[in-house]
Every structure is written in structure tokens, then in C-alpha cells.
Design brief:
4-stranded parallel sheet; alpha/beta; 6-stranded parallel sheet; single chain
Length: 279
């Protein structure tokens, strides 16, 4: 099949806040960047406005990424897309945790990360050989992560449409907290992006502020302080205004690292408290 276009959709969650959506669709930006240059790819973020289903047809491959919070809306979008003859691939956190649920409304389900399965999905769709499920839970190294392309950066135009661009530096968490989905979605191995790759992305996206999507960046203060120090020192000379990351209380044990973080323009830690009971 000659693919007319690939459309990646983020279901609405918060909508616009004073004219902009809250955070850029980072996962979809990465997946769009893996689409071959000869295939048109579009990111539709429903937080920015209504979706134009009239542009979908049988030669359109539709990918929908959703959390459990947005899965009901994802199901509705999938139904509309399939009515237009499009093939729907469902992925994201919910698909990884409850793939059988997504299989009820999507033509194909992606379990785990799609960085290795996504190119095959595109090829299989083009050859009319799409499988009902693709699984990648090997948590591969981030060293060869495909960079976000310039065509995706231009299309998303995150400085105009979003309050806070998203960025990823590490992925995974060795903790095994019963209340958290991180290890099931991103793996139990803490993986690091090469520092020069991070700096290059920040410069090319012209980021002045960003939210780090890493589940537990602060844990690296203990597990790999040399890497974190390298990151902080590389970010220090950049014209960044501020950035935020998620962490646990362990960071309070490393005052020197906190000083480096501030010099690297980090101004907020997002700390989750599941309980204030020490027991």
C-alpha cells in the first residue's frame, strides 16, 4: 500500500490554558521523527483544537497514544478514524499495562516502547502485513535514540502552542513501588541519554525552559552521580531560564549536587509523597 500520510494523535486532556496547551507531545514528536522522510507525517494534538477526520482515509495510518486517563477519548477517536477507513494503532501507557483492552478498539496494539517496533509497523502497514500486537519490553539503550527532526520541530511549533516543552534525559527506575507504573512502562534499568545528544536537542529546539519527563531523575544523584554532574555542567553555560524534574526525597542528602542543579538552571523539583507515614 502506498501510504498517503501517518497521523499521530494525542487525545485531549486539559485543552488550552490561556491560549496554549500545557506540555508538548514529546512521545509523538519522537515517533514522528522516525517516519521516513518520503512519508508525510502529522501530529494532531486534540488539546489544541478539534480533529479533522475528513482528512483520513484507507491510506492513512493513525497512531493514538494515551494514558488510562484519556483512554475513553482515545477509543472514540479510534472509532471515528476507522469509520473513515483508516488503520488504527494504539500505544502508550494504557496499551502497555492493559493491551487486551486496547485490542478491542484498535487494529494493532503496541506494548512497551515503540522505538524499535514503530519502523516495523510502518513497513508492515505498507505491505498489508500489520500484526495485531507488537511488543518491545527489552528497554534498549538510549544511545541510538533517533533525534527529533527539524520537520517535526517546525510542525509542532512548541514555543507558540505550548507553555512548557518536554524533554527526556533518563528513563526507567530500579525502584519497585507498588503504587507506581514506571517500571512496567519504562523498565527497571535506569538508562541515560548521551550528554552531547541532550545538549544538541536543547539547542536545536531553542529551549529556554522545559519539564523533564523522567520518572525519577533525582535517584541518579545516588546511583550515578558522575553522569548527573556531567549533565549539569553541560547545561550550565546554555541560555536556559528554568527547568523542572521529578524526584524523590533522596536529593536532600546531596547538597553539592543540588548546588550544581541550581547552576544548571534547574529551579523546581517535583516530589511525590505517597505517604507522610515513615512506616
Amino acid at each position: 500500500m502506498n501510504i498517503e500520510r501517518i497521523v499521530l494523535i494525542q487525545p485531549a486532556h486539559q485543552g488550552r490554558i490561556w491560549g496554549k496547551a500545557a506540555g508538548s507531545p514529546y512521545t509523538l514528536m519522537r515517533l514522528a521523527s522516525m517516519v521516513p522522510e518520503n512519508i508525510p507525517v502529522e501530529i494532531w494534538d486534540e488539546n489544541l483544537g478539534a480533529l479533522n477526520y475528513d482528512r483520513l482515509n484507507a491510506r492513512t495510518l493513525v497512531g493514538i497514544s494515551s494514558m488510562t486517563l484519556t483512554v475513553d477519548r482515545a477509543k472514540e477517536i479510534a472509532a471515528r478514524a476507522r469509520q473513515r477507513g483508516s488503520t488504527v494503532v494504539g500505544g502508550g501507557v494504557h496499551a502497555t499495562l492493559v493491551p487486551d483492552d486496547v485490542a478491542e478498539w484498535a487494529d494493532s496494539v503496541v506494548v512497551g516502547e515503540a522505538y524499535r517496533t514503530w519502523p516495523r509497523i510502518i513497513e508492515d502497514f505498507a505491505n498489508d502485513k500489520l500484526l495485531p500486537r507488537y511488543v518491545d519490553v527489552e528497554w534498549a539503550s538510549l544511545d541510538t535514540l533517533a533525534p527529533i527532526t527539524d520537520r517535526v520541530i517546525r510542525q509542532v511549533n512548541e514555543h507558540r502552542h505550548y507553555w512548557t516543552p518536554s524533554l527526556e534525559i533518563t528513563r526507567g527506575c530500579p525502584r519497585n513501588c507498588t503504587f507506581c507504573t514506571a517500571i512496567r512502562v519504562s523498565g527497571k534499568i535506569m538508562r541515560h541519554r548521551p550528554v552531547d545528544q541532550i545538549v544538541e536537542e536543547i539547542k536545536r529546539r531553542r529551549l529556554k525552559r522545559f519539564f523533564l519527563t523522567d520518572d525519577n531523575f533525582g535517584l541518579n544523584f545516588r546511583t550515578d552521580p558522575a553522569y548527573v554532574e556531567q549533565v549539569f555542567r553541560a547545561l550550565e553555560p546554555l541560555p536556559i531560564q528554568s527547568w523542572t524534574t521529578q524526584t524523590e526525597m533522596i536529593i536532600g542528602q546531596f547538597p553539592d549536587m543540588l548546588d550544581l542543579a541550581r547552576r544548571a538552571h534547574m529551579d523546581k523539583f517535583f516530589v511525590g509523597f505517597e505517604s507522610i507515614n515513615p512506616d
